[in-house]
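Weekly sync, protein design subgroup
Attendees: M.S., D.O., the rotation student, P.L. (late)

Item 1: inverse folding check
M.S. brought a backbone from last month's batch and wanted to see whether the design step gives back something sensible before we order anything. D.O. pointed out we never logged the input encoding, so this time it goes straight into the notes. Structure tokens as presented (119 positions):
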């Protein structure tokens, strides 16, 4: 598989452009009843997610490709099937190759959808 299934990429779940971290990535958002969120990301081109820190924990799973997590200048390469938990408050950035797919779960609200209302 080279992409997430179509039902996971429904336009209603697409992330609002200003909230997408990193150039060349598409993200689709899913909300938990407890306020947590999960985003599936696909790197359409090679790119970099800028440094950021959250008020909640983050879980990262690389489904396909390569994602390099950067924490305090240390590069942590992650490939398909590898995962990492980023504790709340820890500044981190990332680099990804074109075709990289990740699932990232956040212990709080991380992003907004492009379409605010559903028909």
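Designed sequence read out in the meeting:
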């Amino acid at each position: 598989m080279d992409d997430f299934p179509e039902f996971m990429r429904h336009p209603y779940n697409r992330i609002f452009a200003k909230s997408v971290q990193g150039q060349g990535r598409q993200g689709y958002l899913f909300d938990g009843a407890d306020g947590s969120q999960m985003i599936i990301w696909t790197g359409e081109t090679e790119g970099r997610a800028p440094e950021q820190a959250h008020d909640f924990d983050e879980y990262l799973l690389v489904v396909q490709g390569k994602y390099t997590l950067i924490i305090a200048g240390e590069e942590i390469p992650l490939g398909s099937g590898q995962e990492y938990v980023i504790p709340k408050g820890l500044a981190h950035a990332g680099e990804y190759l074109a075709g990289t797919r990740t699932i990232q779960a956040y212990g709080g609200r991380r992003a907004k959808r492009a379409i605010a209302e559903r028909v």
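Discussion: The chain has one domain: 16-106. Strands lie at 25-31, 37-43, 47-52, 58-64, 66-71, 74-79, 83-86, 92-96, 101-106.
Action: P.L. to compare against the previous round before Friday.
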